[in-house]
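Hey, weird one. I pasted the RidA family protein sequence into the form twice and got a warning about non-standard characters only the second time. First submission, copied straight from the form history:
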Amino acid sequence: MSHDARLAALNIELPTPAAPAANYVPFVIAGNMLYIAGQIPVFNGEVRFLGKLGAGTDVETGKQAARLCGLNIISQARAALGGSLDRVKRCVKLGGFVNCTGDFIDHPQVVNGASDLMVEVFGDAGKHARFAVGAVSLPRGVAVEVDAIFEIA
């Protein structure tokens, strides 16, 4: 099954790719690699999941925020590849930033929201290396930001 067909079979609605909020581009293709800039939990222009993990925002909410970041990553990838995900060979790496207190330690569980989505959509090609780190703040006060690297055909 193609990646596009799998996305449709899962009834996953992708958000409209967000325009850059500063002086950068949303993606870069270099050779057979696709780099997606950090994506925050925005759905069609609406910022969602504001807050700080460990100070009022729980792990499950953070995980949902990371999943929305992942949906934005996939949306940007589809835009970068001319409207189809079928050139994606694999998700190589995700980088997850969690807006959290200094004593918060469950970063990996939060970023699993994005990681689980990549495997759900791309199957074995969605298994990736990653990092999940804490940050004292993130743009617009969001709970999570995630970037990605894909290998493409």
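That's the output from the first submission. The warning seems to come from a hidden character in my clipboard, not from the data itself. The chain is about 30% helix and 30% strand.
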